[in-house]
Write a structure and sequence with these properties.
53% of the residues lie in helices and 16% in strands. With 379 residues, the chain is α+β, with helices and mostly antiparallel strands. The strands form three sheets. A four-stranded mixed sheet has the order 1-4-5-8. Strand 2 and strand 3 form a beta hairpin. Helix 7 runs antiparallel to helix 8. The longest helix is centred in the middle third of the chain and has 38 residues. The protein is globular and about 80 Å long. The protein binds flavin-adenine dinucleotide. The site of flavin-adenine dinucleotide has 22 residues, from strand 1, strand 3 and helix 11.
Amino acid sequence: MNFKLTKQQQMVKLAAERFAREVCAPIAAEIDREHRHPQETFDLLYKYGFVALGFPEEYGGAGVDRIAQVIVVEEIAKVCMATASILSIHQATATCINNYGTKEQKDKYLRKLIAEGVMVAFALTEPNAGSDASNIQTTAVEDGDCYVLNGTKCFTSGAGIAGVYVILALTDPKQKIRGITAFIVDADTPGFRIGKIEEKMGICAAQTGELILDNVRVPKENILGKLNGGFKLALASIDVSRITVIGAQSLGLAEGALQLAIDYANKRIQFGAPISEQQGLQWYFAEMATRVEATKWLVYNGAQMMQDGEKYSKNAAMVKLFSSETARMVTERALQIHGGYGFMKDYPLERMYRDAKITEIYEGTNEIQKTVIARSVLG
Ligand SMILES: Cc1cc2nc3c(=O)[nH]c(=O)nc-3n(C[C@H](O)[C@H](O)[C@H](O)COP(=O)(O)OP(=O)(O)OC[C@H]3O[C@@H](n4cnc5c(N)ncnc54)[C@H](O)[C@@H]3O)c2cc1C
């Protein structure tokens, strides 16, 4: 067992830390306030090869290193959770295409997604199918060499930003979860359009919205994975996301908030001394730091299990549950340590506190994670 970063991972960490500080941090408050997708950041993330981390070189990737992929998201989440969210969801969906795509699909799509600036989004959730994703109602009906998709997807991260969508639809409604198929859909396909863009509490710069599918003809060669095998594919993809999206984001967000609280508490003088000298706050710091450390090893271990091809569904649910609770708890405490200033938009804690909440909801709520873990440990 060796939890030390390799030389290469250390280099990635240094580069990502610098990128986060110089590119993401200066605009984090502004893109949150304006609810603006930071395209300029993504142009640079592609240019410097950060998006390519975790993907095979033959499709323009920088080699499959899950820890390095996690490190980049973690470093960015320390300063801008919305940017980390967009990046990590994009990478997780591209991973789905890498894991399940045919050689032709990877040649056509993967290179674009990891090296040429085209974003991808994953659309499973519908108005009546959230935690119960098996209840989707979007249909895909065979017609010649195509399937014709009809329905509405909601809460899709990257809606309107992505050029490509992985969409889950019913190909055999009678078979329920055994009748769901994943399709790769180009955003410019006739009949595909973006509906309502959501106004959110947090990660405001990460656009979330509705997809409307009105007789969208998708060629059969765009079926991702097996016909009627989409539900399994979706669950496996969500397992990936629980580590590389939620775990990495939550860890970075908590680490960033903890550091801000340390800096503030060492400087802020009340009762003639830095507030960090108050035992009441020191205990907060001890609890926050311990939780962050535990989260880190859970996340990195989960990423390593993925890398090694082990079974990791239970661990992915544990990562998601624990890391998101850490993000919420640490941002809340860090805000409290900032007192009234923490409540003001002049300080980043207010945004970080709002951003933390989503980690307990998306990629399966924490109640669902507990169900997955309990089923696994109880057998
Ligand atoms: C900002 C944002 C981005 C998102 N991005 C995407 C995306 O890119 N792609 C995508 O497909 N989806 C996305 N989602 C959807 C997200 O995954 C769902 O919102 C989430 O799975 C919960 O579904 P729901 O909102 O319908 O809540 P519901 O399923 O209606 O749950 C409501 C409450 O009931 C609880 N509950 C439900 N069932 C159970 C149970 N069996 N046991 C115990 N408690 C239960 C839940 O935990 C929750 O507290 C996103 C959501 C948000 C808010």
